[in-house]
Amino acid sequence: MCASAAEFISVLSFWGPLKADPKSYGEVVLQRLFETKPDSQKLFPKFAALPKEQLQNNPDLQAHGGIVLCKLTEFLQDGGQDKKILKDLAESHAKQHKIPRVYFQIISDVIFEVVVEKIEGFGTDAQTALKNVLKTFQTQMGEFYDELGFDDK
Predict the structure, then answer these.
(1) What is the DSSP string of 47-102?
(2) Residues in contact with 77: Cβ distance below 8 Å, sequence separation at least 6, in sequence order
(3) Which residues contact 84 (CB under 8 A, 6 or more apart)?
(4) What is the dihedral of CA 85, 134, 129, 69, to 10 degrees?
(5) Gene Ontology terms, cellular component aspect (predicted)?
């Protein structure tokens, strides 16, 4: 299922706080990812050996979290139309970082949880729109993984 243009617009209508402060929200997303899926921390060499205490207010974690949300913001603003945005992301994550595609679903779930928790007025329709947009993101990333011949299934 692909998200509709209206769903992308809906998500963008409440995405402002995340766009304005990607490092802070990105830090929360990555910390939550590491808490809920501890094995995921091993996929980030810079953070793999750090205890939870050293991840809090960590400038490198904030920077990486900011990159995650900025890339997602680019995807949202483009309505998922510019395939180069995700193609480049898929290439680096498949070839360089060797990230299994299941982690795109996992981090999408974490992003959804953080947004529901942190953004006021995030109603049922907005939640559905975000789920559909994140599913489109996951699907497109998976398609690029397939094109690259990255077999992690």
Answers:
(1) TTT--HHHHTT-HHHHHHHHHHHHHHHHHHHTTT--HHHHHHHHHIIIIIS---TH
(2) 12
(3) none
(4) -60
(5) extracellular exosome; sarcoplasm
DSSP state of 129: H
Say yes or no to pLDDT of 1 above 80: no
Q: Which residue has the tokens 């070839």?
A: 95
Specify the residue for token string 């992301």.
89
**Both tokens of residue 51?**
């205890």
Kindly tell me if the per-residue pLDDT of 142 is higher than 90: yes
Share of the chain above pLDDT 90, in %: 90
- Quick check: 153 pLDDT over 80? no
Single-letter amino acid, residue 114: V
